UniProtKB/TrEMBL annotation:
Binding annotation for NADP(+): 165-167, 231
Family: Belongs to the tetrahydrofolate dehydrogenase/cyclohydrolase family.
Pathway: One-carbon metabolism; tetrahydrofolate interconversion
Segments forming domain Tetrahydrofolate dehydrogenase/cyclohydrolase NAD(P)-binding: 139-281
Gene label: folD
InterPro entries found in the cross-reference section: Aminoacid_DH-like_N_sf, NAD(P)-bd_dom_sf, THF_DH/CycHdrlase, THF_DH/CycHdrlase_cat_dom, THF_DH/CycHdrlase_CS, THF_DH/CycHdrlase_NAD-bd_dom
Organism: Lysinibacillus odysseyi 34hs-1 = NBRC 100172
Catalytic activity: (6R)-5,10-methenyltetrahydrofolate + H2O = (6R)-10-formyltetrahydrofolate + H(+); (6R)-5,10-methylene-5,6,7,8-tetrahydrofolate + NADP(+) = (6R)-5,10-methenyltetrahydrofolate + NADPH
SUPFAM superfamilies named among the record's database cross-references: Aminoacid dehydrogenase-like, N-terminal domain, NAD(P)-binding Rossmann-fold domains
Pfam families in the cross-refs: THF_DHG_CYH, THF_DHG_CYH_C
EC number(s) stated in the UniProt entry for this protein: 1.5.1.5, 3.5.4.9
Any one Gene Ontology BP term: purine nucleotide biosynthetic process
Protein name, UniProt field: Bifunctional protein FolD
Keywords: Amino-acid biosynthesis, Histidine biosynthesis, Hydrolase, Methionine biosynthesis, Multifunctional enzyme, NADP, One-carbon metabolism, Oxidoreductase, Purine biosynthesis
Residue span, Tetrahydrofolate dehydrogenase/cyclohydrolase catalytic domain: 6-120
């Protein structure tokens, strides 16, 4: 059997085109959707992520502002910056690039972002609303995976989805979104004994582990849909996912590559959330 490759780059581009049209509409009404990106310190990976996010914003006509703070910034100074951004009319979305330096309380920082501008969907308010199925900003990576499945015509309802990983930003919300679409969901993690006995039951397998080429053929039920969230470097320093693509490709019905799978969708959904925030603000202003 040979599997269909889910092309995240192509699907992402398609969605970005429709987001761009919404940006144009907002501009006609005098609004430029604005994203503020807060970067603390000099982490090279974070710098690359932030640069890509800014570039993607600008490519579709959105405004983006980088707030660069030194590694030794105090917690209070960082919170003050966020409070200031919460008040700004030209900023519709706020993103704080993680991880933050150890002396900063990450939870306090995220909780300070106004829920109306929490386009990463990480704040307790956004997470609570997502759990309750209420209107909110969905965390970009799991939101992107849902779009990949939808655009690839993969039915979720009634399927058994197994998630490997339970982080706050990927694994946990991923399971919730699949559950909301009527999948039966199993979470697995580092304390799960005999992992393959669970993953082999998956119609849809989501790998969000952070370990290079960790998922192999022995984890897969033939014909499963395999979504690889991981972004890792292998022993040759080559970019790779959590799934051993070459080993698994023949067994899966659909599979996402790394790069070019889930990665491009994460930024796409950030753009989507920011435009949504600007649209909501416009509606609110009109109603007042
Ligand atoms: P975390 O390190 O926060 O979480 C990893 C999860 O994997 C944990 O829940 C951990 O379990 C579990 N795990 C670790 N080892 C095993 C094991 N041997 N067996 C089963 N489960 C295990 O990572 P993230 O969720 O933040 O990210 C996961 C991957 O996705 C990374 O490669 C990251 O770079 C990538 N990523 C990609 C994005 C994209 O845009 N494509 C966006 C965000 C992340 P436990 O909880 O027990 O420790």
């Amino acid at each position: 059997m040979s599997s269909a490759i889910i092309n995240g780059k192509e699907i992402g581009q398609e969605i970005r085109k429709s987001v761009e049209k919404r940006v144009e509409k907002l501009k006609e009404q005098g609004i430029i959707p604005g994203l503020a990106v807060v970067l603390v310190g000099e982490n090279p990976a974070s710098k690359t992520y932030v640069a890509n996010k800014q570039k993607s914003c600008e490519a579709i006509g959105m405004f983006s502002e980088l707030i660069k703070l030194p590694e030794d910034v105090t917690q209070e100074a960082l919170l003050d910056q966020i409070r200031g951004l919460n008040e700004r009319e030209d900023i519709h979305g706020i993103l704080v690039q993680l991880p933050l330096p150890k002396h900063i309380d990450e939870e306090a920082v995220i909780a300070t972002i106004s829920p109306e501008k929490d386009v990463d969907g990480f704040s307790p308010v956004s997470v609570g609303k997502m759990m309750l199925g209420q209107d909110t900003y969905l965390p970009c990576t799991p939101f992107g995976v849902m779009k990949l499945l939808e655009h690839s015509g993969i039915e979720v309802a009634g399927k058994h989805a197994v998630i490997v990983g339970r982080s706050h930003i990927v694994g946990k919300p991923m399971g919730q979104l699949l559950l909301q679409k009527d999948a039966t969901v199993t979470y697995t993690h580092s304390k799960t004994p005999d992992l393959p006995s669970f993953t082999k039951q998956a119609d849809i397998l989501i790998a969000a582990v952070g370990r290079a080429n960790f998922i192999t053929k022995e984890h897969i039920k033939p014909g499963a849909v395999v979504i690889d969230v991981g972004i890792n470097r292998d022993e040759n320093n080559k970019l790779c996912g959590d799934v051993d693509f070459a080993d698994v490709a023949d067994a899966a019905s659909h599979i996402t590559p790394v790069p070019g799978g889930v990665g491009p969708m994460t930024i796409t959904m950030l753009l989507e959330n920011t435009v949504q925030a600007a649209e909501k603000k416009l509606e609110q202003d009109k109603a007042e």
